């Protein structure tokens, strides 16, 4: 006898109502009550109520109960989006992927005949756009798991690899886990200055920091390499928190990835372009496109947590942090960029940094819709909601970089 | 072929981190570096609530044997759902599935599919297939259980004059009987094929408690290799009859019934009452733990000494994803119970809802 597991739909009823206990009699009431409390409970280390050792100054005026209520309001915003999320969102990300790939192949195609000046300008611009879109709206967000809910292996945080020199898996660890969990906690979140820049007065000044503006200016055009080195967590290795094997493994992964990236942009594309005598021009084109992307990504990312108005935190402020406090920290530690729809897209919706930090795995196309609600909550609870146009935020960031290059004034 | 592969490798130098297929998919959606897809070529309504969907699979599909089934991935509200469907097309032709609307996924397939749509596919499998050597056959089917058998009949009857097939198909009414006209035509045309439709709406269920009904419909049923496909009860009754006959007839081997091959629509692990917890099996680690309905699977695994990938432990970083093999989990944040084989679940915010098998 053959028994084949063929389930032509009997499993359609596969999402039994969690509120319908199967048992009868007196157990029903108990089970139903249990379901109700559990549906509210959020897992993880964060408590529903209570308070951290120290509440950040910007939120010091809030009572424990107010913070808990704020947490519930933000949970409700998230649940609302989760309920709406569906085929239009899926269509959005697929359209973006198509547009990005279209830009990428047309840009590269134009570079193949880039002896012609117009073709060079067109090719370089298209490729720059493609790379920006790929890194920001696609890569960053897909690697956050924002699209995992679709269960499409082609658009999934576990399979995606991006056009950026650092391997996706290394970045996911330092970014999704460390940075998003410890946002702006000095000593925990190394994104505060990336182990290179002094970005907060709490960070100890050394003469090395005099070079702050120079380092930053040099970092911008090679930003992807800065991130790649940062993701190796050399500091952790030096201080014994990362094993040698782990470092070697990461180095190998980076080497393989870098070789592929190099080959594509600086060997294969120019080599094909040589057929039309455009080899050198194509090389300049890909170099420029990578640099443009780097400068742009650097600018956008630095606007996320460094402009005037964003707060940093001490470890005491996260000790005993509740879910509501976690939300508060994400909001007052992040800054948005205001601008047009196109600008939001080009930043990969990181212009909605506050909303992204509150809900890192909600699809990016929904942040714009959430933003007014979050802003309203901040206003009601008397919390800062930092936002401004790109140039202002970039200027503010640079001002901080210059200021913190110098030692703190003696009191 | 080898040259093609070399070409693809050369092209990937230019497309990395994408594969050349990812670029080609801009022009033809069947291309994918990662997953088998098919394009729907034709949709034919069969009854009021069933339809046959013909599709042209992309590279990587292998031709099906008559009677096999395939996993089909469909998108509902942007979310991929996988279900298994028997292939109803004869062997050697482009595959087709015949789907009856029984739930959300099958409903969407029957009502919402149009030519040009993309189906996600897994290669055909299953050993509910025709015997290697020709022998007289008896097919017992109920409802949508006709689909794999239809593939067998279409493969065998028109092409093998030496075949000898009897089909007894039960359905609620004539209007519910899938392929009724085609079966009648085949029976007219080919003397080696006989079909009996049994409508339970008029005559009640086919009675398998004794051999009487079967003796009347197909007197030589004991001499035939039998195939049965249909709902659970139908198959259990059939099986019971064959077993009983075999026992009774043990001394007189001549009247023993022939072999019975069954295609069973087994459901996956039954979900618990949403909040019950259940037995968690870490398949690769070969460990089983009883878990309650409130503890994240991540903690369950760690407590059991399984090397669990982990990250933020609060459901934001997606570092802890593990494929679900079977069973259902409850999202501790929303209370939603969900689970499809192969689905990647966030163990830090998911608890067992009934028995759960994880691929770790």
TrEMBL record, chain A:
Pfam families per the UniProt record, alphabetical: FA_desaturase (PF00487)
Disordered: region residues: 1-24
UniProt-listed InterPro entries: FA_desaturase_dom, Fatty_acid_desaturase
Residue intervals of the Fatty acid desaturase domain: 120-387
Membrane-spanning parts: none
Full protein name: Acyl-CoA desaturase
